[in-house]
Write a structure and sequence with these properties.
Length: 464
């Protein structure tokens, strides 16, 4: 297909042309051809309503369109990367395959297999850090061990940060070094056609920049407004960090430049993401087990009917139901409500946090293994630097505090839209309602105070 030697750049979770480290390094080194693999090992596990495939697909179309301006193309294939990457490299006569690092256990094992296969053909896989500021074991304590307390990690993270880590990788300036060939086919489409390929939100770099611009309008008030779901003042950039449609270097630079209370709070959230990523990398057992191993023996109640009610937003607790229905209908859930729903599942329903983690992994468009796992274990009190087991979110108090007028609840639980501000948070406590409980809206499936007592008794046995 291509007689001259070139590099192959493999897009993964870095779906952008601007400030892309691996792409920059490849373009700087040699003429480059770009590719993306729809990994069948991952896609075969997904349900047809998974909203992430459409986001990825439309982000790739944007890249493809931009590459055409340079008379270049994007190879898109479906299959096993361990087979396809060496095959494509041979086909296009690439001796080097460039990509950006991924620190999830599956990705690490996949990359090792690809590297081994390439090496057998005297080719090499060259990886670069791109979706984190600090990765792997770049931030360690005095004993050269990973931090397991966020505050200590954050302080060291900030002390180590300098301009070198934030410098833009000028991949855009080198795009004229793309190899000018038309290479692609659409055979991959038949394999992904079972998914809805329309993105439920603006995708690619264009979508990311729109979200960033909208968020920055009110970033000064972020600290005050971020916990109130009706205001919807979170950044919504989680999906862009997950799929790399925007650079983490750009976001951290902006957070530092803004110099407001809001931007400082936002920066802390970005550091939380890096904290959980290094936890996953250094303690990969957390994917299947509690970080605090003493909690691995806990016998959760795991009532399947209660779990189904939680999934469907039919628990009888309006703030929980609103969150779950927002997730099911939009692929997103407000951050504060994620904590309320997670606490309710684990501490009110006494259901294993892994059940909830798996459900959100199926539904969230911004799902990221490290953050999802870390936050679930934080809420369940099984993780590193987790919320103490005796601190439990009261869904009624959380609802009154963060959705006082019930605006968020009424948006996603419309059968409650005629309830007063007094009744909206706990319809079961009202004597006069414009609906019938048990028919129009469920009675609470559990009693909070009773369940909290049971949870504390359960965890107290294993706390040491």
């Amino acid at each position: 297909m291509n007689k001259q030697s070139c590099n192959l750049f493999w897009f993964r979770r870095d779906l952008r042309l601007i400030d892309n480290n691996g792409l920059y390094q490849s373009l700087k080194d040699n003429k480059t051809i770009c590719c993306f693999i729809f990994d069948k090992i991952i896609l075969q596990k997904l349900k047809s309503d998974d909203c992430r495939v459409g986001f990825i697909y439309n982000s790739l179309l944007e890249i493809k369109k931009k590459l055409k301006k340079f008379n270049a193309d994007l190879i898109i294939e479906y299959g096993d990367p361990k087979i396809l990457i060496p095959k494509i490299a041979k086909k296009v006569n690439a001796n080097k395959v460039y990509a950006n690092e991924d620190y999830e256990p599956y990705a690490i094992s996949r990359d090792k297999a690809v590297e081994k296969k390439l090496k057998s053909s005297k080719k090499e896989l060259i990886l670069f850090k791109d979706h984190l500021i600090f990765a792997k074991q770049e931030i360690l304590n005095k004993e050269n061990k990973p931090y397991v307390v966020y505050t200590h990690y954050k302080n060291m993270w900030l002390s180590q940060l300098n301009e070198t880590f934030l410098h833009e990788c000028p991949s855009k300036k080198h795009l004229n070094n793309l190899l000018k060939l038309k290479l692609s086919s659409n055979t991959y489409l038949k394999h992904i056609s079972k998914f809805n390929l329309k993105s439920i939100m603006p995708s690619g770099e264009i979508g990311a920049l729109k979200r960033l611009k909208h968020f920055l309008k009110d970033i000064e008030s972020y600290k005050k407004t971020r916990d109130f779901p009706e205001l919807d003042q979170t950044s919504h950039l989680g999906v862009d960090l997950r799929f790399g449609t925007i650079s983490i270097r750009k976001l951290v630079s902006i957070a530092l430049e803004e110099k407001s209370v809001g931007s400082k709070t936002w920066l802390n959230e970005l550091i939380w993401r890096e904290f959980f990523s290094q936890i996953l990398y250094n303690f990969p057992y957390v994917v299947k087990e509690p970080f605090r191993k003493q909690y691995s023996k806990i016998k959760y109640k795991n009532n399947k009917k209660w779990f189904e009610a939680w999934c469907n937003g039919e628990t009888g607790y309006p703030i929980v139901d609103a969150g779950m229905r927002q997730l099911n209908s939009t692929g997103f859930m407000h951050n504060r409500v994620r904590m309320i729903c997670a606490s309710f599942l684990t501490k009110d329903l006494l259901i294993d946090w892994r059940w909830g983690e798996r459900y959100l992994a199926e539904k969230l468009i911004d799902y990221e293994l490290a953050s999802n796992n870390g936050n679930w274990q934080w809420c369940a009190s099984t993780g590193c630097d987790a919320q103490p087991y005796f601190r439990i979110f009261n869904p009624l108090l959380q609802s009154k505090k963060f959705d006082k007028k019930g605006i968020y609840i009424k948006k996603y639980v419309p059968e409650l839209d005629k309830l007063s501000e007094k009744d909206i948070h706990a319809p079961y406590l009202s004597k006069t309602l414009p609906l019938t409980l048990g028919k129009d809206y469920p009675y609470p499936i559990v009693t909070h105070n009773i369940q909290v007592k049971l949870f504390k008794e359960l965890f107290k046995k294993y706390k040491n």
